[in-house]
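ok so i was messing around last nite and threw this chain in just to see what happens. nothing serious, just curious
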Amino acid sequence: MKTSSLVVIAQNFLQNSVIEQIKPFGNGHINDTYLVSLKNEKEEYILQKINTTIFLDAEGLAKNHLLIQNHLKKEKKGAIELAEIIPDTIGNYIFRTKENEAWRMTSRIKEAYSIDLVEHNWQATEAGRAYGWFINALEGIDTSKLSEAIPNFHKLSFRIDQLNQAIDENRAKRKEDVSDLLDFYKKREKQLVEIEEHVENKEIPIRITHNDTKINNVLFRNTKAAAVIDLDTVGPGIIFYDFGDALRTIANKANEDEKDISLVKINLDAYSNFSKGFLPQVKKVLSAKEKELIHLAPILMTYIMGIRFLADYLNGDIYYKIKYPEHNLVRTKVQMQLISEFEANKNELITIIHQYIHD
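result:
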């Protein structure tokens, strides 16, 4: 997009400032993101065009952000920062162009950096502390007031229905080739569906969750977590989503598309150190059922990703980008092996969790 057009859009949020530079920023794959620098001012801002193909309700995203922002200010819970969403000149938090593009602006977290892989134990601990703080700090918000950015994003029964439909339709004629994988996932379905049953009977409460707890959605300053970013997926969920998905990614020694399955192992140090940061932040708000079953959270989230990859493979690779025909098959095998690793190390992993919940 032309810089002149970006300046016009940015000026709708910063009418009393002189814009010195706007340049592409970050490596996100969904929204278009730019860094805005001002003349004679130290503050910098992040300007984003929201991908409304994925996020259908841009105004809902802004409403969620503002609700969280105001809650944290009111409760004075500022141990970890969030980028502040900025209104435009008429008080709207989403600026719509004539082409109906949705734009927003937030403050930039100062002197902070992100990482894509955990290389030191303190990084896992600090990421856990940040995401645990996020859960704890938002206790008390009425979850019904938040929009669900992507409906059913982590809902297991919804993903199982998608897999069953893919099996029935067998669009790519691949079902017969993956019978062993289907058997693996089907054997574990009942135990994990029971988690949803505990949600329905309120033994596992609905909370405000981040829902995308990758390591690169935490910003660090020196050797401490400074901020939690990328709030687009924030909404009603269960704590298993955030704890489980973080460990699914942080505690896997292999890449998500590693062809050599023998390399898929649990990084016990990363598992323990993330738990060390996360669980003490949330243990006071955990229900008895959450404490009993939270060791299943990494399996739940790994299972969900595994059947999503498998369903896409059966459908002919229509959702995830692939680099070769078996790419989604490789991805689902990695998730399957990781589940096996979590199961094989069950007792040790439960011991780690209990250490930080019951100390």
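not much to say yet. The chain has two domains: 3-107, 121-357.
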